Amino acid sequence: MTTHDNAINGAYEHLLSSSCQRSFADLEAYFCTGCNPVSGDYMNNAQRTLTLCRNYAERVWGGQLELPSDSFDSCGLNTYWRANSTTVMQSKEWPNAYAFFAEVKPPYFEGYTVRVVPDDEPCFDIGKTLALLGLALLS
Question: 13, 29, 71, 121: most buried, per Cβ within 10 A?
């Protein structure tokens, strides 16, 4: 495991209790964006942006982007990146996914803006990435 992987894993371990860490595959994949081999195709270092596909962002958020979600409420999320870290309920803390993505960033993307775009634009989606990797392995 690389030092980057260790840092990403440590951040994810701080986000959720150990009993909940494997409960949210899309949130886990979002936190692992920095170690995904194709994520560089969807970030702009000059503009400091990371671009996510809408469908993927909805899966990470747990619902429609414009509405509150309670998908992590049963576990709570630890706001370890804040000066006064605390455990919060998603449905009470962020009114929509845009507020969530503005604050909750994958490790190494803390200073970036997370953009959500339609799925037909160039954007990161772990599902698309896995499908493409699977196709590459089959050929």
Answer: 29
CB-based contact 87:76 (threshold 8 Å): yes
**Distance in angstroms (rounded) separating the CA atoms of residues 36 and 42:** 11
Which ranges of 48-89 would DSSP assign to H, the alpha helix?
54-61
Whether the full predicted model's pTM is greater than 0.90, yes or no, is no
User: Which residue range(s) make up the domain with 90?
Assistant: 3-138
d(CA 8, CA 133): 22
Give the residue from 71, 60, 36 showing the smallest Cα distance to 114. Answer: 60
- Number of structural domains, the chain? 1
Q: Is 27 left (phi over 0), alpha (psi -120 to 50) or beta?
A: alpha
Is the pLDDT score of 137 beyond 70? Answer: no
